[in-house]
Amino acid sequence: MNKLDEVFSVSRSARDYARGYCAHLSDLLGRLDYEAVDKVAGLFEQARQDGRTIFFLGNGGSAATASHFVCDLGKGTKTGSRPFKAVGFADNVATMTAYANDEAYERVFSRQLENFLEAGDLVVCISASGNSPNLIQALKLARERQAVTISLLGFDGGAMKALSDHVVLVATAKGEYGPVEDIHMILDHIITTYLYRKLTNAS
After folding, report:
1. Residues 79-83, mean pLDDT to the nearest whole number
2. Which of 20, 176, 190, 199 has CA atoms 20 to 30 A from the CA of 29?
């Protein structure tokens, strides 16, 4: 039984479930590796200074988080100084479906990366399970291209944990997609609002 099942089993209403869910989120946030969060923020800032591109990848809810991250980093941090070059590969429906239809869904990200990825760029993969085949392929290509790999993961980290240079793990029982995805979005807002304020204060 994962924590959400446990919370539901003792809830008599949506109100009780909401309280238990939020208490669980609070506990997970308290156990985050904040040194890893600091490292990721620093890598983003260094990529900005070096003119590197940061690519964001994800499936399903994590695709939405990837898109949100691209918006917040690319637009939400604009201060007049050198901008963040943030790109999301889950946003081009025509390209994604072309590769999925003509080749395989496992290649929808790696094939896009082949056109753009250079050594020193950042590849950010977002996944609750850490076992998405298309993200695994993207991480392998990134290693071949000498890019820096960052993964925001959940559960036990899955296969992607060992393939990533840097990991921020929301450690939960398997199947707790909601809390993991909630915290991945919070990480977006923590990192991008911090970087915006750092750039604003520097200028």
Report:
1. 88
2. 199
